[in-house]
Amino acid sequence: MQEKTEILIVEDEMIIAANISLELTKLGYEVTGIIPRGEEALIHLKENTPAIVLMDINLKGSIDGIETVEQMQKFCNVPVIYLTANSDEAHFMRAKETHPFAFISKPFKKLDLQRAIELVVSQTNSSTKLEVDSLEKEKDLEVLTDAIFVRHLDSMVKVEIKDIRYIEAERNYCRIFSQEKEYVLVITLKDMEKKLPSKHFMRVHRSFMINLSQIDELGTTHVVISKKVIPVSKSYREKLLQRLQTI
User: Cβ atoms within 10 A of the Cβ of 161, count?
Assistant: First the structure.
């Protein structure tokens, strides 16, 4: 028997949450919980990892839905669908930074909810396949003391560590930007972080890792490398300053 897709609902309007839960159950999904506050959702997620989180943006409490997702992404990578009755530009831009799989505006139709979840399940299954593919392509990246070899077309190309500017993640891909070229590898940024020497590289955002020696400008919320503005998350800022003092 095929396992049901598990979904966590984080919604502080209990009537809406109950209706969503009922609709999801009818569609064949398993609701693992209905939680009204972001703080409680974070505790729950540390012990239980669903396949999808339906997150209301305008939660009551000390943190809203967007900040809840930001904190959640520090310890788990669960696809998020935002529910919102407030679609103003400021909320949208904040939410966009967390890379959700979908937005659904309230009040929403049952079909909108169903299609959004089906798309997430489909994309997640594709990502799982990519993860398997990446394991099969472990040899696409070899790390030496002062250089790395990356697969480019049908050969392994040597890239000097000092020439690597930064690395940007796109789901299960990483783009390596060097002084000469750009290389795309099927590998997660988390795995890339494990492989590259921490002496030279540091992760500064969920989607970026930088070569510390390549920083041209340091701002309060970003760094600039070769005219590219790279965001620095709050959780990495202090560590980045400490690392730069030791270089």
Answer: 19
